[in-house]
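Protein Record: Sequence and Backbone Structure Tokens
======================================================
Tokens: labelled as protein backbone structure tokens, with as many entries as the chain has residues.
Question of interest: how does this chain fold, as expressed in backbone structure tokens?

___
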Amino acid sequence: MIQSEQLGDVVQMEVGALMVGKIHNHNYSKEVFKGEEKGYFEFGGSTIIVLIEKERVEVFDEIMKNTKEGKETRVCLGDAVGVLVS
């Protein structure tokens, strides 16, 4: 669970996919900054799910379109997926 002034409560969940042996999370008792490693996956393909409070972010149309069509949208570190709703 991450508390953010801009986004409110955010859940970040690591999902170990096919042939993932382990998910290692560093034990932090400090503030974590954007792009800083908070853990790592061991062997195999995986993903990270981020849950944000309703109506905090307007997700880009392309991502919404792909989702409605059952398609995945690849997102990498630093890629924008939407804009904050003010």
Remarks:
- Residues 61-68 form the longest helix (8 residues).
